[in-house]
Amino acid sequence: HQENSRTPNKQTDKFIGGLLSPSFDEESCLSRYRSALFRKDSPHLPSSYLIERLRKYEELHKKCGPNTPLYHKSIIQLNLGQSIELMDCNYLVWTPFNGLGNRMLTIASAFLYAVLTNRVLLIHQTVDMVDLFCEPFPDSTWILPPDFPIKNLTKLYQGSETSYGNMLKNKRIKDDVSVPSNSLPAYVYLHLEHDYQHLDKFFFCEKDQVILQKINWLLLQSDIYFVPGLFLVPQFEDELRWMFPAKETVFHHLGRYLFHPTNTVWGMITRYHTAYLAGSDERIGIQVRVFSRNPISAENYLKQILMCSQQENLLPEINMNRTLNPTKSTMKSKAVLITSLYPEYSEKLKSMYYEHTTVTGETVSVNQPTHEVQQQTERQFHNQKALAEMYLLSYCDVLITTGWSTFGYIGQGLAGLKPWILLTPRDQKPADPPCTRAVSMEPCFQVPPTYDCRAKKNADLGALVRHVTHCEDVEQGIKLV
Ligand code: GDP
């Protein structure tokens, strides 16, 4: 199963080389077939096997999705309180946790896990997530119906009695692959958050996957991109290799397959893109995220950004003597898109290019759609703006992102670009070196397990498995290359 090497013509291109099903009504979700046209053609086409698996998944989802007889049958089974062998449909219920970038990474991870294990992925949609994404699967819905019998899904946490780790600890689940389905609970909660414990991490072990396969319903709460962890599980190896002959394209393909901004968000994206970005010869996205655990002044962080840009030759240098050199003037224009919670970065950069000519003669416009000041994940409109900005970043030709930020991971993954990653500032000073080029466009799995299930001892999994390496921004993290 080789990567599909044919060049797409404009007609197939809107379906991204067959990644998208053509069975949707275009008007109800304009972004679905138009978003890819805002970018240069991706050199990474989906493999024919991935396309086959996606169509197969869509069939399963249609058969088992909400409001089908098989879904109702499964709800009856859930209410019985125990798992049943050979049910027609098994489910994975995703619940939201943390910011939108984290959520999108975990939806993509959950979806891949659902495909690998023949489960149907359902999304517990809280009010802050309404009107963000279109339905990704034709003739069905991925939204968990509100009358789902398990309540308080957002209250699940490390200590929940129903978590896989706690069930193992309390011997509610026997650590034995031959355990029959009917002795297993109807559902189990997978706690895959950054604070997950040793027994929760058994999720990435071969034997535990055999047990989990017998449980009809899985609930998942996570804030980490755990896809690289799925590559550590032996029974998924072959499928993953066939689906993704180029490992670093996993999120690139899954993100473009799953996430389609609704018409409300698409309106914001296209209005901004047309007004501020489309007219330039080149677009440079700079994603500025300042984490409170590593504070730095706007002045110093901008210094770091400019050091990075100078070192890597990303933004035109300015001419310090301010005089116009008529022979150097070209018609070339660059648009810088800054995304940040704070206005200072674009204000300062804008003044810099207003007050000085560039040594190349290029003109530089500096644009920033919003400056929300504070993260407000519980507000729907705030999330819509965040989503719009991730998309705008993904239409850039060059990206500078902030290390550790999942917001940036989404932009780079959708774009299919290896960004320059700003390294974490220390002691309020710019990091030195200021940035490093990403080795792949994949997001980082920031908190991977450190337990080698086969050898039954701790190990550096970043060094153990092919196609997995340590992240540039997160030392203990791992990513696909
Ligand atoms: P991370 O915390 O950087 O890994 O990214 P998340 O997306 O998970 O959480 C950060 C949240 O803060 C975003 O989802 C937004 O709600 C908000 N935020 C951070 N940076 C920006 C930005 O540049 N623009 C906008 N509109 N919101 C931002």
From TrEMBL:
Top-level taxon of origin: Eukaryota
Gene Ontology MF: a single term: galactoside 2-alpha-L-fucosyltransferase activity
Gene Ontology annotations of biological process type: cell wall biogenesis; cell wall organization; xyloglucan biosynthetic process
GO cellular component: a single term: Golgi cisterna membrane
Entry keyword Glycoprotein: yes
Keyword Amino-acid biosynthesis appears in the UniProt entry: no
Membrane topology, record value: Single-pass type II membrane protein
Job description of the protein: May be involved in cell wall biosynthesis.
Name of the molecule in the record: Fucosyltransferase
Organism: Rhynchospora breviuscula
